[in-house]
Amino acid sequence: MVPNNPVQVGRWKCGRGLPLLFIAGPCVIESEELVMQIARKLAKISESKGVQIVFKSSFDKANRTSVDSFRGPGLERGLEILAKVRAETGLPLTTDVHEPAQAEPTAKVCQILQIPAFLARQTDLVEAVAKSTAQHGGIINVKKPQFIAPEDMVHVVKKCEASGNQNVLLTERGTMFGYGRLINDFRCIPVMQSFGAPVIFDATHSVQLPGGATTGGRRDMVPFLARAAVASGCDGVFFETHPDPDKALSDGPNMVPLSELPRLIDQLTQLRSLTQSFEKG
């Protein structure tokens, strides 16, 4: 079998030769009020600019360094809030899951279920998410772990297909280089696209500075990496965004201020059109 390309995401399509898919939202669900504020803004951006946006936020940030880190409202309350986003804005949804038991209830609410990079080699989790998303007509998005080569992601794709889902996205989010540094090898994009699946570039987690009780980051580097990824042919871009990142409860140093996101989306949309014109020759 070969992964579907393009992949249908609600009313959007992601894949070869198509407009970029943007995945955006706050790192974690801090409150219903904040989530709805951001979701409404993203829906306005989508409508006014004619761009494809999927709303993202996590109900539980289980991969935390410190026991004191904020994790979110949990599965039940988190899915209630995400369902409200979908009902009010019409935006497709994505969130991450960390345990096989979370797959089925989450697939009923979200069109895309995301496997965190640290968990991408957990076969039981990948299979559970692939089966649940297939049953509900959804998509599985697997982030490339920071510790494996892009060529090895073909095995993840095969696991998804063997579990019944050919709607697969792969996401590049940097590779560990020594301690406390991530680098982006943009060859990862065409390498993973060669497996047939569309490839997303995670622009905000790529600027993380791991280490210490809380993760640092360089949000000022996000535009540079995002533009490079689009020029390299990625099919979508993932941003975490917040009205006031310095006050965010998780991953604030990496997140794009919500007020700056429209300009960056404009840049990337124009760059996508330019790169596609080169490809058409």
Query: Would you tell me the overall average pLDDT?
Result: 94
Helix vs. strand class: alpha/beta
Percent of residues in helices comes to 25-40%
Number of strands: 15
- Largest sheet: spatial strand order: 3-4-5-6-7-8-11-14
Secondary-structure element order, N to C: EEEHEHEHEHEHEEEHEEEHEEH
Which sheet architecture does the biggest sheet show?
Answer: 8 strands, parallel, barrel
Question: In what range is the share of β-strand residues?
Answer: 15-25%
pLDDT < 50 runs, ≥5 residues:
none
Number of contiguous helices: 8
Describe the protein:
The protein has 281 residues and is α/β, with parallel strands linked by helices. The protein contains eight helices and 15 strands. The protein has helices at residues 32-49, 75-89, 103-107, 123-135, 153-162, 188-193, 222-231, 261-280, and strands at residues 7-9, 12-14, 21-25, 52-56, 93-96, 112-115, 139-143, 168-172, 175-176, 182-183, 199-202, 208-209, 216-217, 236-242, 256-257. The strands form four sheets. The chain has an eight-stranded parallel beta barrel, surrounded by five helices. A hairpin with a 6-residue loop joins strand 12 and strand 13. The protein is globular. The two termini are 30 Å apart. The mean pLDDT is 94.
